[in-house]
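Teaching assistant here, posting this on the class forum so everyone can see the example we discussed in section. The complex has two components, and the goal was to see what a joint structure prediction looks like when all of them are supplied at once.
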Amino acid sequence: MIEIAGLTKSFGPRHALASISLTVSRGEFVVLAGPNGAGKTTLLRILATLLRPTSGKLKVAGVDPLKVGPLARRQIGYLSHRTLLYDDLTAEQNLRFYARIYGIEDAEARIADLLARVDLTDRRRDLVRTYSRGMQQRLAVARTLLHGPQLLLLDEPYTGLDPVAADSLTALLTDLHAEGHTLLLTSHALENAALTGRRAVVLLCGRVVYDGAITDPAVFATHYRQLVSQAMSSARPASPAAPKPDRPDSAADVSGRARKLDYLRQVLAVVGKDLTAELHTREIFSAMAVFAILAMLIFSFALDLRGAVARAAAPGVLWSAIAFAGTLGLSRSMAREQESGGMDGLLLSPADRTVILFGKALGSLVVMVALEAVLVPLATVLFNVNLLNPGVVAVLVLGTVGYALVGTLLAAMAVNTRAREVMLPILLLPLVVPLLIAAVQATSGLLEGLRWADLRGWTQLLVVYDLLIAAASLLTFETVVEA
Amino acid sequence: MAETSVALRRRDGLGLVLGLLSIVSFLGALWMVFGYAPREATMGDVQRIFYFHVASAWVGFFGFFVTFVAGIVYLTRADRRWDIVAHASAQVGLAFITMTVLTGMLWAKPAWGVYWTWEPRLTISAVQWLLYVAYAMLRGSVMSPEREARFAAVYGIVAFVTVPLSWFAIRWWRTIHPQIVSSEGMAITPRMLYTLFASLAAFTLVYATLLRQRIRLANARDRLELLRLAQES
């Protein structure tokens, strides 16, 4: 099921994994042990296709995940440190979203089965943020199993669980193993009696230092501690067991799934998920609307906008308010993914990475258009101008499309920086200045009574900007969201 | 130690040549700007800023172009050397664009009566300056070196999208910026043109010298980090 040869992962000059070789057969239950920083999570994230190795060969379920990621990801269920669930959705809505992303047929029946299996049927319509840690972990297991993966990668699944919840998880994992799943699990709880007879692999400083069976968990735990203290002084490569490689999973041919309709369905699933979460919280729209209105108010007295001056300044004030409020919305939308680990959840799915770009951008576009639906009538009244005409609407759409696209690309970067709270406006606003100049000038021209043809230069600039940004985003987004 | 110093000097022979060429060509350009090019009839000596302004703008834009290309190559090959080139070129390009904005302001005061006016081309120059300041801030704010390189490559590519917008802005928008190159030919005399070419050559050589030194510095920093890690382990 897993074949690793000479796998290395470097972060800058530091090696997190140093030429690891390991083979795991179909149906095996392997415990991956090692102290913090040994490289366990790095190895699991590489196997889950969330990280690219620096060098080495890798096969999961008979295929190279670096070459055919979507095919491999259909065979992998990854349970992370984080639950990868959206707090502002219910259990059902979370699983329904992932079912749409994975393209699961008869999803409702599958979801009902899994919720019953993890004993969450009664709480299926409650928001995840109201769940206890144990319940969230059980739902995360249901998410991991949703698409019927053969290989389960479980990173510290017992973390934060009370003894009862831990026993329940052990029983579930035992059942899954009995059903034929391959399990690779990292754990510090090596005294667990359920590990008897399992294969243990110990990692230290990015190297395999032990590979053998656990006959008695208590004895193994003692041996493990000695091993770690010895190996700290002289790490040695292990001679891993060499089971025969698995056959490629021919049943999982998903090449036919890369169809336009599937793509559109996945994009709409991301949009639907974002809008559902927003309907539950209303935090993004309300924050953007209040901020935009405040911006217009501040401009009105800072620039002493009255009479003809107010009418002349109206397009600029409107677009500035949209731009500033837009950074809030884009930033928060991506932060939501980051906080919940939802980005990893999306990356684990077989969906094309650009699905995330277009889904998130379209979700932001909908929220921004809703904001404009409030701001335009308001500006019409406050500045005594006629903004309610089709030309202005067209300019608003042209400008907002480019803004949402480039904003989504940059927000995906900004959430991964140290200064994430302030980085998005710094990155985004210089980049959208040409767009804003064109949009303001086109809107002003329309208010002055110019025809659409008279504004060709500005509208062309908007279109060129949108196309260039769309092309650049499309080509680079996958690079940005890779861990 | 002596052998190492000799080896380093030998290895940087090209750097030495570049440095000498930069000094000679820059001194030559200075002589042409102040001793060879004629005094402009309307604006007088203040027009001579033009030779520094245009040359630094050219090198700044070229620096960002190199960052753009190196970013694309890095994304396709994941080779750290290209990230180092992209970073170094952006730093040098930012320094020259800063010089462009400052010399432009010095020229604008006697020419237009103000240090700054919000005409479109100047605005785009300011935007580009801000873009590459943001590029530098982004690089400083990402913790993982690999992710920093990827993010910077993407941002360098997207930021460069504004360069053609800047170039075409002079025709798309009404502007009071002097148009040196137009469909009617050059608006300067042959001596002025030769001086401009000499300045462009000198600034390009200075750019190449600085770029090389920045790349060497980054490589030295990498080697130091490796030594530190080796010592720690």
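For the discussion questions: The radius of gyration of chain B is 20 Å. The interface with chain A takes residues 75, 120, 123-124, 127-128, 130-131, 134, 137-138, 141-147, 150-151, 153-155, 157-159, 161-162, 165, 169, 172-173, 222, 225-226, 229, 233 of chain B (CB under 8 Å). Think about how each of these relates to the inputs above.
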